[in-house]
Amino acid sequence: MLPELGHFALILGLLLAGLQAFFGIAGPARGRDRWSAAVTAALAGQAVMVATAVGCLIACFVGNDFSVQYVAENSNSALPLFYRVTALWGAHEGSLLLWILLLGAWSVAVWFGSRRLPPRFSARVLGVLGLVSFGFLLFTLATSNPFLRLDPPAPDGRDLNPILQDPGLAIHPPILYTGYVGFAVAFAFACAAMLEGRLDQTWARWTRPWTTSAWAFLTCGIALGSFWAYYELGWGGFWFWDPVENASFMPWLVGTALVHSLAATDKRGLFKSWTLLLAILTFSLSMLGTFLVRSGVLVSVHSFAADPSRGIFILAFLVLMIGGSLALYAWRAPLLKSSAGFELGARESFLLFNNVLLVIAAATVFAGTLAPLISDSLGLGTVSVGPPYFNPTFMLSMLPLAALLCVGIHANWKRGRLADAQRTILFTLLAAAVLGCGVTFGVYTHGKVLTPVAATIGIWIILSSLVEPLYRLRRHLSLPRALLGMSIAHIGLGVAVLALTTVQSFTVERDVSLSLGESATVGGYTLRFDGVKPVEGPNFEGVGGTFTVSRGGRPVAVMVPQKRQFWVQHQVTSETAIRLDRGNNLLLALGEDLGAGRWSVRVQVRPLVSLVWLAALIMAIGAALAASDRRYRAARVSEPAAGAATEPAA
Amino acid sequence: MNRFYLPILTFALLTVVLAVGIRHSPDKGIIVSPLLNKPAPQFALPNLADPAQVVDSRAFKGRWYLLNVWGTWCVECRAEHAMLLKVRASGRVALIGLDWKDNDADAQAWLAQLGNPYEIVAVDRTGRAAIDWGVYGAPETFLVNPAGLVIYKHVGALDEATWSGEILPRLPAAAGPG
User: Fold this and answer.
1) Which element (helix H / strand E) includes A481?
2) Residue B31 has pLDDT above 60, yes or no
């Protein structure tokens, strides 16, 4: 009964989403205010229906209803309750449902948050969101229905993919999706502005908190994914530039550009059409990311022969959504003129550089991710693109961006009188250079050519971001949350640059040989060799070397890397021991028996790895703080509500 | 021409490329393995049939083989199982299983129930070997040549079209499982 109820609720949700789109878009276009007013009723119904469907599916999971194919494929009666609930998004169908649920939640939030907006405009926003919901619901029902029954029912479920049975990964998708879906709001605001043919500074002020919140969620989501890859996969790395990571990183980069371009539109009424384009691009890349994130989707994107309807639907859907909004852009954006000008040294020009560099970075990631596909489809042979491409190209646009930030943050709007801030800029740069070189040559005794430069820039960002909040505090001036949030987010970026620099530059790897009781110091860690002892497994025997690790007299851990010899073929493998200590990642691998109780051991110390994730968290906190500024909440409707005169003649 | 048309024209171009890509290489979608034409990653893992034994990938050198990544938790693996049995029956190429993040007893029961298409099955309980092979999700199948180079990778359930259209043509006419 429950699955049918959920299925039925989903169909009703589809119809209501259709109504929501119709009322929201046709109402204002035809000037029928009663249609426009009906959009919220349709949205409420749609959201309730989708929530009912999700509730039904969760109930099926919790109740172990293995007559539902999706439950049978992704759960098991022995699965703990927590994972039976999170199994909802364990595969493609449920992930889509989660996506739609979150879209409904954002839409309802926009509804409540947009009561001060002109009714026609908010109807259009909700109408566009309804159209997106409609598309995703249609996609789900047509190709990925999670409520399909199995006949006969499975005796037990096939269990959740073991990779997903991890608390980190269980909460990672909802957070990431909240970020992805949140950009739908910016997208809807952009489409509504284009439909209206009018975009002013208040529009940007309405859009900003939504965009910044979505960005905060996406930042958290990406960091969680990276953290999971680190400790679960145990590779000792945090970013591998693989297509799934890139899929989430591209909307983040373009979304960052959008956040900044919105600031210029808000404060100065500039970059209007560019902001619209970024809003469309960010959401387009989010949709692309959604379809790439689940390996199940990747498989279906690949194997069109196996399920042609789904693959073609994905492409058609993307063409309709992205192509449609870009067509709207080509048609309407020329109407939006940015009249204000600015001088070269003004804050606007720095925001422009910021946008250009971020978009270039996103484009290089995009090119690297899609190059294999494009080259393959054009018959140019197979190419593979990895870190040797991504690392330098990315750094090429990111380091100038970071340096420009430190100057631009002191610039005024409109006027390019940077000379006023010259002393501050030079002083922070000097202090950063001293500290950066101090870190490079003092704390760590080696590094690469770019290390002091990158470390300086990281510290420079932190110092520059502190200048204005400290100035305001000292003068007892108000410190609005938008400013405080921006400063915190920028500090987070500085921490990220610093952390990435130290990890990339100061990873120490050394092979040492020790006999019983001897010690060696690598990367600040002292390890004492306490001998080897035999270990035995089901199909191997081996030795484990015991190392007591300490740092400056403080005991850190006892680590036991093993060397295993498998019985039959005398294959020897090395089992590394990994430890995260105060942000440093420590890795030991037992080497060769050098005779006479002497063993070689490989020691790797990666400093400050944890700072990378901490930096992301700081950025997200800053963004959340900025989004909660009163300035956005107190915004009043300043223009005549839904004046017919604002309707474009076209 | 108007600069506002540039985005949609770019997107149209991208769509054409994607559509062409989908049409012309249905089996090589977005993720092309970086391992192609590179040496296959080595592993030494317990043997499913007898965990006291080791499956050493170096033992496969000198002949063609298909490495199939599967798990009993994987639904599509069940769908492709019949095809794997056909591959085995054809005798054209050896089929090596990599049982990924799975429970040994379940895997043994699965093979007992559905039939065992594999010459030998290595057990990758921690998923490390699968990571080395760049596996995204089961099932995935790799074709490895006698020199130990990965020649072809298929993501998703192996089907008749892939077998006869992509794998068989890559095998030398006389190649056998021995």
Assistant:
1) helix A481-506
2) no
